[in-house]
Amino acid sequence: MQDVADELVAWLFARVELPVQPPVDLSQLAEKMAINDILDAAMAEDGRLELRDRRAVIYVRADLSRERRRFTIAHELAHRLLMHRTAPAVAYRRRLTGDNLERLCDDIAAAILLPRQWVEKEFIRAPQGLDTVRRMGTAAGASLSASLVRLREVHRWSHSLLRFNHVTDRWRLAAPAGVPPDLHRSLRTTPETNTTLAAIGRRSREDVVAALPLRLGLRSWVFPAELSVRVTIAIALVDLTRPRPPEEESDLLTGSLLVAGVKCNCATFGLQT
User: Fold this and answer.
1) pLDDT confidence bin for 198, thresholds 50/70/90
2) Is the pLDDT score of 260 beyond 80?
3) What is the pLDDT of residue 185?
4) Is the pLDDT score of 244 beyond 60?
5) Terminal CA-CA length for the chain
6) Which of 68, 141, 148, 241 shows the smallest number of beta carbons within 10 Å?
């Protein structure tokens, strides 16, 4: 479905003569797509496209973060794009309903904010690390999750991005991105996950390479990961394709140092494309 999204966005950018250079000016793009206004509103959903009396208005929930707001506007622009009778892949689009349609709009939104041509050119030699994900998100006005997923799609990154929230003295998995579908429902934290994140949070505010304990199904593993731990939020760039038994943790990393019982390497992720 992402190939269809990339084709549609390439066609759109060429038609409206908009440069393929993030950060994409969504207000300008909306104007060129005959959107009359983009308005903040108190609403339950993130966004909504309304067509009434020959006017097209995008409503956006007022309390969204900047990155989420941009993605929501791009998602609603995707709905507008799919209404265009001369856009490519007409037959394909007409078969889509419900969740599949919303998924395509998400893919189109990602392609608008993070155009394939730009991602291919600017990040072809970038290492698979948190710094790369941050640089992409900052340059495009996109979230870390959207940036990571785009890097997986365009440059075949193997890593997933996990977000943890600290709630009632425990680190809880909150928002995984780029996790393979067959692993998504079976991924869980363990007491050792909490110990690892807590130890890193006490000792460092820098990005840290460590062996991250997680559970897949009924079995516990450790995974090579790069982690950033703050007071209430932690993010981890994890290679879920490389599980190792906990007893082999000492072999996961070389040149590492011991921080409160956690194997870490604060210098480099060391897992590159």
Assistant:
1) very high
2) no
3) 87
4) yes
5) 24
6) 241
Which residue type does 87 have? A
What SS3 string covers the chain?
CHHHHHHHHHHHHHHHCCCCCCCCCHHHHHHHCCCCEEEEECCCCCEEEEEECCEEEEEEECCCCHHHHHHHHHHHHHHHHHCCCCCCCHHHHHCCCHHHHHHHHHHHHHHHHCCHHHHHHHCCCCCCCHHHHHHHHHHHCCCHHHHHHHHHHHHCCCCEEEEEEEECCEEEECCCECCCHHHHCCEECCHHHHHHHHHHHHHCCCCEEEEEEEEECCEEEEEEEEEEECCCEEEEEECCCCCECHHHHHHCCCCCEEECCEEEECCCCCCCC
Structure tokens at 267: 């210098």
Average the pLDDT over each of 95-104, 108-117, 121-130, 203-212 and give the range with the smallest value: 95-104
All domains of the chain in start order, with CATH: 2-114 (1.10.10.2910), 158-265 (3.30.450)
The answer on pLDDT for 188 being more than 50 is yes
- Give residue for tokens 């998924």: 103
- pLDDT value at residue 94: 60
User: In which residue are the tokens 């929230």 written?
Assistant: 165
